[in-house]
Write a structure and sequence with these properties.
10 helices; alpha/beta
C-alpha cells in the first residue's frame, strides 16, 4: 500500500501530533440510542445492526476498563504501539446521565498512555452538560466527537429513519466548536434516492462547517436490519466499487487539505454481510 497518500490520514495526523503510532481501542459501553429506546423510535436506522456497529462485549459483562486493558495488550503485541486512544464506538456514547458518562469515560483512561478520547454519538445527543463532562474527563488529551450525519438532506434522513435533522447536526457542530473540540462527521454514500450530486452536497456542507475530520462509509446490507428486508424485495440498489471510489476521491478533493480522513470505507461484519461483497476488499478500496 502506498505511503504518500494524497490526503491527511488519521494515522499520519496522530503521528504528527504524538511523534509515533497511536492505536485506537474500540469500546462498547452498552448504551443505546433515542432511535431504539422509544424516545424517537424503536427500530433504529434502516442499516443499523443489533450491535450498533459495535462488538456487543458490554452485553457479555466485559467492563470498559477490562476492554481497554485487553485492547492495549493486543495493540502492544500486534503493532508495538505505546500510545492509545479510547474510542467509544457502538451506539450513542453521550446518551446517558452526566454521572454515568463521567464514570464510563474515566474508566477508559487507564493510564497516561491513553492520550486521546474519541466518542461516537448522534447530533441530537449533544448538550452543554455532556460537553462539560467530555471536557472534564478529556482534559490534557486529544478529544474528538464523532457525529453521525450520513446525509445533508432531510428527506434522506427521514427515508432511512435516522430520527434527527440536518439542523440538529449543524447545531451540534456549532456547540462543539465553541468548546474548541474536534468534530469528525460520518457520511454514507449510496443511500436510497441519492445520486452523486446529493452525496457531494453533503460534503459541501461539511466543508462550510469547517469540519475537522470525516469517516466515509458505503451503504452495505447486513442481516438483522430493515435494509436487508428491503434488499430482499429488490428495492435497494448499491454502488459498485468504481462508483464508490470515484465519489470518495471527488469528496476528498472538495474538502480542505487539513481535513483528517479517519476512514475511507465502512467495515462490515464479515459473517453478516449480504452485499456488496467488495466491502470486504479494504486494500483494493484504499488503492
Amino acid at each position: 500500500m502506498r505511503q504518500d497518500l494524497p490526503f491527511l490520514s488519521l494515522n499520519k495526523y496522530l503521528k504528527n501530533i504524538f511523534g509515533e503510532r497511536v492505536q485506537k481501542i474500540p469500546l462498547d459501553a452498552g448504551l443505546t440510542c433515542p432511535n431504539r429506546d422509544g424516545t424517537k423510535g424503536t427500530k433504529g436506522c434502516i442499516y443499523c445492526d443489533p450491535y450498533g456497529s459495535g462488538t456487543g462485549r458490554a452485553r457479555n459483562g466485559v467492563t470498559i476498563r477490562e476492554q481497554m486493558i485487553q485492547g492495549i495488550d493486543w495493540a502492544r503485541k500486534r503493532y508495538g504501539a505505546k500510545k492509545y486512544i479510547a474510542y467509544f464506538q457502538s451506539f450513542s456514547n453521550t446518551y446517558a446521565s452526566p454521572d454515568k458518562l463521567r464514570k464510563l469515560y474515566n474508566d477508559a483512561l487507564v493510564s497516561s498512555d491513553v492520550v486521546g478520547l474519541f466518542i461516537g454519538t448522534r447530533p441530537d445527543c449533544i448538550d452543554d452538560a455532556v460537553l462539560d463532562v467530555i471536557e472534564e474527563c478529556g482534559k490534557g488529551r486529544l478529544i474528538t466527537i464523532e457525529l453521525g450525519l450520513q446525509s445533508a438532506h432531510n428527506h434522506t434522513l427521514q427515508n432511512i429513519n435516522r430520527g434527527h435533522s440536518v439542523e440538529d447536526f449543524v447545531g451540534a457542530v456549532e456547540s462543539i466548536k465553541k468548546r474548541d473540540l474536534n468534530v469528525c462527521a460520518h457520511v454514507i454514500f449510496g443511500l436510497p434516492g441519492e445520486g452523486p450530486e446529493e452525496m457531494l452536497a453533503t460534503i459541501q456542507l461539511l466543508k462550510s462547517l469547517n469540519i475537522d475530520g470525516i469517516k466515509f462509509h458505503q451503504l452495505y446490507v447486513v442481516h438483522g436490519t430493515q435494509l436487508y428486508e428491503e434488499y430482499k424485495k429488490n428495492n435497494i440498489s448499491l454502488l459498485t466499487l468504481d462508483e464508490y471510489c470515484s465519489l470518495v476521491a471527488r469528496a476528498i478533493s472538495i474538502l480542505p487539505e487539513r481535513t483528517v480522513i479517519h476512514r475511507l470505507q465502512g467495515d462490515p461484519p464479515r459473517d453478516h454481510l449480504i452485499a456488496p461483497k467488495w466491502s470486504l476488499e479494504k486494500n483494493e478500496i484504499r488503492q
